[in-house]
Amino acid sequence: MTDIILETKNLTKEFRGFTAVNGVNLQVERGHIHALIGPNGAGKTTCFNLLTKFLVPTSGQILFNGRDITTEAPAQIARQGIIRSFQISAVFPHLSVMENVRIGLQRTLGTSFHFWKSGSSLAQLNERAMELLAEVDLTEFADTLTVDLPYGRKRALEIATTLGMEPELMLLDEPTQGMGHEDVDRVTALIKKVSAGRTILMVEHNMNVVSGICDKISVLQRGAMLAEGRYEEVSKNPLVMEAYMGTTTEVLAGAH
Q1: Domain contains 131
Q2: In this structure, which of 166, 179, 200, 232 has its CB flanked by the most CB atoms within 10 Å?
Q3: Residue 49 zone, left/alpha/beta (φ > 0; ψ -120 to 50; rest)
Q4: Do the Cβ atoms of 138 and 160 come closer than 8 Å?
Q5: Parallel, antiparallel or unpaired: strands 18-29 and 33-37
Q6: What is the CATH number of the domain that holds 5?
Q7: Residues spanned by the domain of 214
């Protein structure tokens, strides 16, 4: 039997008569990397905002580990293990890379964020912070001010701080956006690496990334589910090709 970690049932969001997400039934399998793709305006980000409760659904249900979380607040969702990368991204540019990860780890102390505490009192987190930096290949940047990090490395730091929250389900919103080829390849490999023992749901425009690491793909168009399946199936779907016509049809056909 398929082990579903996240499921939506007829998930719908309307804004003053405009339906941004329309009856979406999504099933994310535990341990998978699952991509949500679609043309601009397809409703991908709105869908993410509904899942993390930054928006309240007009109708429908969201189930996490079989439990209805539709009415729960963002903080409750995060505590259950659904963590979205930007929620705890490196927002302290003048702290070091190590200090940023350590702040993300304070949640594991069972206390609130003690910004006023001395650094020495947080030293117990240093070992775990360094483990996370090693996991995302940032060990050599531990003492670097975050503001001085290259862009691709900043995204790696976001992933490290996300991992510090011990997510059961990681939501990554366009993790390779705005990157050159080298950074895209590095971050793609990183996502694949950190997916071991975790589940990842990601919005991504780069079809080479999607085809390379995703187990399953859901395609949205105008807020509704257009197609779903493995990349090989979805990329050959005439409806999907038509939806992308004139923008990324060539990419869909040519991605490896």
Answers
A1: no
A2: 200
A3: alpha
A4: yes
A5: unpaired
A6: 3.40.50.300
A7: 1-81+169-177+198-256
Which pTM does this prediction carry? 0.87
3-state SS of the chain: helix, strand, coil percent to 5? Answer: 40, 25, 35
From CA 63, how far away is CA 188, in angstroms rounded? 28
Name the amino acid, one letter, at 233. Answer: E
- The CA distance from 29 to 172, in Å, is 16
Q: What distance in Å separates the CA atoms of residue 32 and residue 215, rounded to the nearest whole number?
A: 6
Kindly provide the residue ranges of all beta strands, DSSP E only, lying in the chain, ordered along the sequence: 4-15, 18-29, 33-37, 59-64, 67-68, 82-84, 169-173, 199-203, 216-221, 224-229
CA distances from 154 to 32, 132, 141, 184, 224 (A): 24, 14, 11, 12, 33
Cβ(24)–Cβ(8) under 8 Å? Answer: yes
Instruction: Answer yes or no: is 40 within a domain.
Output: yes
Distance (Å, rounded) from C-alpha 101 to C-alpha 95?
A: 10
Domain membership flag for residue 117: no
What residue has token string 């900043």?
Answer: 154
Q: pLDDT per residue over 34-69, tens digit each? A: 999 998 889 999 999 999 989 999 999 999 999 999
pLDDT tens-digit series, residues 67-80: 999 999 998 998 89
